[in-house]
């Protein structure tokens, strides 16, 4: 499916505007952890504890996240995922523009 050059240029601008509207970005994955321990002969589950796991400078880093910071960190993770999607689409659109412009 070939898209006309003006439509591609318009989409490129829309992508940049969407990227600019992303106000929170955080790489990684946020997960809940629970721990079991024995207390008074009974197994007790503790948690949840929240952990942000990500790669940084070739290393896997895990960082505990306070319960009151879970929502902003999760928004940041979602913002980063959306940014990456938009970046991929931006490259595709720019490639099409380049090939059409000659």
What's the helix and strand layout?
Blueprint (H helix, E strand, L loop, with lengths): L4 H17 L7 E11 L2 E15 L2 E7 L4 H32 L1
Helix pairs in contact: 1-2
User: How would you sum up the major sheet?
Assistant: 3 strands, antiparallel
The total strand number stands at 3
Poorly predicted ranges (pLDDT <50, ≥5 residues)? none
Q: Label the overall shape.
A: elongated
Put simply, the count of helices is: 2
Quickly give the structural class.
Answer: alpha+beta
Helix content: 40-55%
Secondary-structure element string: HEEEH
Calculate the mean pLDDT score and round it: 94
Strand content is 25-35%
Identify the strand order in the major beta sheet. 1-2-3
Give the termini separation. 18 Å
What would you report as the Rg, rounded to the nearest angstrom? 21 Å
Key features?
102 residues, alpha+beta, three-stranded antiparallel sheet, 2 helices, 3 strands, 48% helix, elongated
Give a nutshell description of this structure.
48% of the residues lie in helices and 32% in strands. It has helices at residues 5-21, 70-101, and strands at residues 29-39, 42-56, 59-65.
Description of the structure:
Helix content is 48%, strand content 32%. The chain is built from two helices and three strands; from the N terminus they run αβββα. The chain has helices at residues 5-21, 70-101; strands spanning 29-39, 42-56, 59-65. It has a three-stranded antiparallel β-sheet with strand order 1-2-3, with helices on one face. Helix 1 (5-21) runs antiparallel to helix 2 (70-101). The radius of gyration is 21 Å and the shape is elongated. The two termini are 18 Å apart.
């Amino acid at each position: 499916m070939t898209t006309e050059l003006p439509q591609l240029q318009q989409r490129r601008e829309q992508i940049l505007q969407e990227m600019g509207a992303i106000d929170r970005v955080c790489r990684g994955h946020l997960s809940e952890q629970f721990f079991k321990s024995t207390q008074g002969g009974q197994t007790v589950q503790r948690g949840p504890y929240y952990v942000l796991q990500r790669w940084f400078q070739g290393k896997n880093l895990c960082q505990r996240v306070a319960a009151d910071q879970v929502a902003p960190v999760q928004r940041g993770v979602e913002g980063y995922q959306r940014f990456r999607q938009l970046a991929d689409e931006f490259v595709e659109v720019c490639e099409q523009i380049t090939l059409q412009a000659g």
